Amino acid sequence: MNTKRNQSLLLGATSISLMLLAGCSQPGPKENTTSVENVSASAQALESDTLSIWPELDIAVKRDPAIEQRISDILGSMTLAQKVAQTIQPEIRDITFEDMRTYGFGSYLNGGGAFPNGDKHALPSDWVALAQKMYQASVDDSIDGSTIPTMWGTDAVHGHNNVIGATLFPHNIGLGATHNPALIKEIAKATAEEVLATGIDWIFAPTVATVRDDRWGRTYEGYSEDPEIVKAYSAAIVEGLQGKADENFFGDHQVISTVKHFIGDGGTEGGDDQGNNIVQEQALFDIHAQGYVGGLSAGAQTVMASFNSWKGDKVHGNHYLLTSVLKERMGFDGLVVGDWNGHGQVAGCSNESCPQAMNAGLDIFMVPTAAWKPLLENTIAQVQSGEISPARLDDAVSRILRVKLRAGLFDKPAPAERALSGNQDIIGSPEHRNVARQAVRESLVLLKNHQQILPLSPSATILVAGGGADNIGQQSGGWSITWQGTGNTNQDFPGGTSIYQGIKQAVGKANGKVELAVDGKFEQKPDVAIVVFGEQPYAEGNGDLDNLEYQRGNKTDLALLQSFKDQGIPVVSVFLTGRPLWLNPELNASDAFVVAWLPGTEGGGVADVLFTNAQGDVQHDFIGQLSFSWPKSPEQSHINRFDKDDTPLLPYGFGLHYGQKSTLDNALSEDSGANQSQALATLSIYDRSIQAPWKMALVNSEKSGTISSSMLENGAMKFRTIDRRVQEDAFKVDWLQPNAGQLRIYHDFVQDMRSYPEAQSALSFDYKLDATLDAPLWLQVNCTDTCQSDIDLSPHMSFSQPAKWQTISIDLACFEQGAEDFSKVGIPFALRSAGILSLSLSNISIIPDAADKADVQCAAQ
């Protein structure tokens, strides 16, 4: 059955367009929307020509006259303020229950790393309690006069990933390798149940990006570089989350789904997150719209607009795409929600004001900051002035009401009284974990199996090594408890299983021997070493790369693999990654090489495939096949199925089975193509978030705390992520008392950074002051016992009115004491204020060849 399934989804085609357009739904009824733009006759003619590219979908969910009448009745009774409030979606960190009672927001959300009461370890009962109070406040008409229920949206992108104890499934890139839409539907059903157990109505999933450049930091959120898989999966997930239109549609076990991000996010130039997609319109449909053909046809009720631009225009403000294409031509009659302050990126807009986005077709502003209040007030004023037409507002509110009515939110009981609410047994249930474990098994792709070293006998002596071996956080990746997936330990995943733990269970059953040694230093020489290694967790923006070389400039994992080879120990590599990467040296140093992607909490699925049973029989064969082409050089970041100009190292669809001859030899070219004389690259320490391997903490005399979420307070200092240009790309630190403590960026182990002072580098960062500095602000770089100089920055930092972002740079020579100082850097950046201070920071880096231009100059010691 698996063979037939894989053959079906991997059939070739002579033309992408012919393959994709086959099976498009027959025309159906079009949504009647009100255009708010005056376009010329020539523009209308051009639009008519290009609209023919897009299909008129036969959407499974049809209009219900009874629902339409209720929409009309409710809309007719609403005030302007009530209507606008339906279009505002704030975040749980920025609103109170009283705000909900006062304004009656149509919806609200929790972002990644936001939890009830700010508690990362909040229980399901805490989530339900918050949902219950928000719901009750929304239907309380004592202040705003409205009884329209609100709805809560969350990013459950690989399970209910914000909740401690939830089942985390493989990220989408791993699911793409399974080529199994039926399994994906079961994953969606399980996710919906766990979300409903916490009282939440709405999931911001599935992501249906077709990834074309693997440097993109959200590559692992895409199922494939090929839109064929994306289309099939999108329909399966929507049906799994919402139910089919004629079967369990929005029953007690279903949630509202969102296909996102409309449109083209996986095809930006250079793989730049939130960048510019410049493909022609036919390719925009053929490649980037297929997830919408699948998901919308299946009845998805919401679409999330994308951060990216298309041909230079931000999608959040693109009337042609959001209204002419999506709503009118494709017939989508649900709602369009924005992404995290994405409206503020539209030309002429800010987070507080953007009539252009609503006029373009945005129905809900996602405004997860204190900007929600001025945005609400400004939108009311813009409707009153005619800048936003009343008809456009009515259309937006009608769509919001339609989704709520179809989902039964007007008729269902309050969140705490719903069928699954508060049921702790649902969160991480054995049934859900079994589905996840199956997904892990089916997602594994075998790239190399030299001399048929796999499968392994569980009665052998096994060494398990590598940083990812016993690390559920690393194997789960981004969007795991915290937004970036960082700051977690195994204790944050109760009920989960690391890859080592799964191996230990398998070997223990057969009376074999297993030893865990992350650093590879064993007590008994093993028969084989299983080395689990790979990328550290990251999420959007922070994961963007400039080329695909693995561990560029820091080949610690390669050294570990080679150490085993030097001792004559066979090596089985298990690679954790959110994208294909160039790692020819690591492939050469491995006898077998398995891509495990980001498998989530059920690491035991890896051992299920690696080992035979005690009798020597294969338990589960490798059936995963690449849904992304594997690069043959670090620069081959955007080679995709059907490309004719170049060939990858391993093609789309590759994946060995047991018994098949391994096609990769042990002498792949290890030339990365890098110019060894090339100038030293800038070292990024904080770029939208703290960059690996660094960590960040608040430290004072009484206690210290590593920053693992978006907010932290220790009594003397406060930390919070803020939005500068994009979502949470900067942070703010408040010293609440003089000499209260230190903001510290550090690493658990010292780093050799000698090349940076040798390259006459400068430490640079961007800052914004809320008031004039009236006390010293001390900057420190700490190199254990050698370089600990404190530099007072206060004479060099200025306050501008109004407060503006500025840049300051410091010559690294200011911290040097001797030639070897920077060989052991433990803290590359620390700040301590002698006074009460509020300071915003971003873009912390060390820049070569910049010392002579630094704002703070020091003669070398």
Ordered list of secondary-structure elements with their pairings:
Layout: H1 2-9, H2 16-21, H3 41-51, H4 65-76, H5 80-86, E1 88-89, H6 97-103, E2 107-110, H7 124-139, E3 151-154, H8 172-178, H9 181-196, E4 202-203, H10 227-242, E5 258-262, E6 276-277, H11 281-288, H12 290-297, E7 302-305, E8 309-310, E9 313-314, H13 319-329, E10 335-337, H14 355-360, E11 365-366, H15 372-385, H16 390-406, H17 430-443, E12 445-449, E13 461-465, H18 472-476, H19 499-509, E14 513-516, E15 528-534, H20 556-566, E16 571-576, H21 584-588, E17 592-597, H22 604-610, E18 683-686, E19 695-699, E20 704-706, E21 711-713, E22 717-722, E23 730-735, E24 742-746, H23 755-758, E25 762-769, E26 777-782, E27 790-792, E28 806-811, E29 827-833, E30 837-847
Parallel strand pairs: 1-11, 2-3, 3-4, 5-7, 6-8, 7-10, 13-14, 13-15, 15-16, 16-17
Antiparallel strand pairs: 8-9, 12-17, 18-30, 19-20, 19-24, 21-22, 22-23, 23-30, 24-29, 25-28, 25-30, 26-27, 26-29
Characterize the structure shown.
It is a single chain. It contains 23 helices and 30 strands. It has 861 residues and is of the alpha/beta class. The chain is globular, with a radius of gyration of 27 Å. Mean pLDDT is 90; it is low at 1-42.
